[in-house]
Amino acid sequence: MTAVTSPVRPSAPRTLDRCRELVRPRLREAVERLHPWMAEMAAYSFGWCEVGGAPAAAPGGKGVRQALAVLGAEAAGAGGHAGVPAAVAVELVHAFSLLHDDIMDGDATRRRRPAVWQAYGTGPAVLAGDALFALAVDTLAAAPEGPGAVRLLSSALADLVRGQADDLLFATRPWTGPDRVTPREYRTMAEGKTGALLGCALALGATLGGAPRDTVDALDRAGRHLGVAFQLVDDVLGIWGDPAVTGKPVGGDLREGKKTFPVLAALGSPAARRLPALLGSCEHARAAALIETAGGRTEALAEARTHTAAARRLLGTARLAPGPAEELTRLLDHLAGRAL
């Protein structure tokens, strides 16, 4: 009697690798269509070259958004190739947003290398970001379902810009008092700044894969919940993460005075009476300890679990192909579970 073996279920890292391998050639082809100087800055941002164009193998991003686009197409019952134009477009938009974010935030490094604006100058980096955005729109417009896909991307970008604007304005508001940033405002900001593009990646892949509108909408909402969970976990890692893993200094977000969810949650506790004074000092280790004592870390992780569960429910009720749906769920749990 022949033994029946269960199919191998790919792990989340293997899913990310598979999708990157599928998308990379088309992403490189797209970047090569840019002005040579813009193409070099784009290639540098992806870790493909050094300043001046010499080949490099620097650390790149995880490829989360491109994987979501590919899996969105596969979940709709199409082949992964159907989602590649969406994957290229969202990866280009993500790169564009990072170039501009680093300038706005004054971040001098990205993935352990000088940020593009540090390596090439602020003006060139802004221009390179603009070129990546234009290339993303052009890539989608040439795809099947192009007009509808471009509208989806445009809507997500509007939400991303609103979220980024809120995040910048948060820095000007006090820690306490009637004008303080509330956890509810934070959730809205995170959905726009981080969730909009994750939801768009899934929705675009599903659209190019021929999914019905209700499935596209469910995937968009699932990605937005994932984005909030992802941002919450990033906030926790920004205070208590291991620098060897995160690539960020311990307590970096506290040094920069960012209005992150653990801090906002802790400020609502009577145990955090001394926290505002610590946030305005250089005693970041004491501030981190008090945030944890006041429940900020616990509340942030609980909130992340809530959004992860909401995303899982949406995936469970949508009409998706079983194999890709399982891969999506595994990837979701992997991304949101980095600190859970």
Descriptive notes:
With 340 residues, the chain is an all-alpha fold. Helices cover 69% and strands 1% of the residues. The chain is built from 16 helices and two strands. The protein has helices at 12-31, 36-45, 64-75, 84-105, 116-120, 122-141, 146-170, 183-208, 213-240, 243-246, 252-255, 261-267, 275-279, 284-293, 296-317, 322-336; strands at residues 109-110, 113-114. It has a two-stranded antiparallel sheet with strand order 1-2. Helix 7 (146-170) runs antiparallel to helix 8 (183-208). The termini are far apart.
Give helix and strand order, one letter per element, not per position: HHHHEEHHHHHHHHHHHH
Tally the beta strands. 2
Query: Would you identify the regions where 5 or more consecutive residues have pLDDT less than 50?
Result: 1-6
Largest sheet: 2 strands, antiparallel
Give me the number of helical elements.
16
Strand content: under 5%
Radius of gyration: 20 Å
- Chain-averaged pLDDT: 92
Shape: globular
Specify the structural class.
mainly alpha
Range of helix content: 55-70%
Q: What is the strand arrangement across the widest sheet? A: 1-2
Terminus-to-terminus distance? 43 Å
Question: Nutshell version of this structure?
Answer:
This protein has 16 helices and two strands. It is 69% helix and 1% strand.
Features:
340 residues, mainly alpha, 69% helix, 1% strand, globular
List the helices and strands and how they pair.
Layout: H1 12-31, H2 36-45, H3 64-75, H4 84-105, E1 109-110, E2 113-114, H5 116-120, H6 122-141, H7 146-170, H8 183-208, H9 213-240, H10 243-246, H11 252-255, H12 261-267, H13 275-279, H14 284-293, H15 296-317, H16 322-336
Antiparallel strand pairs: 1-2
Helix pairs in contact: 1-3, 1-4, 1-16, 2-6, 3-4, 3-8, 3-16, 4-6, 4-8, 7-8, 8-9, 9-15, 12-14, 12-15, 15-16
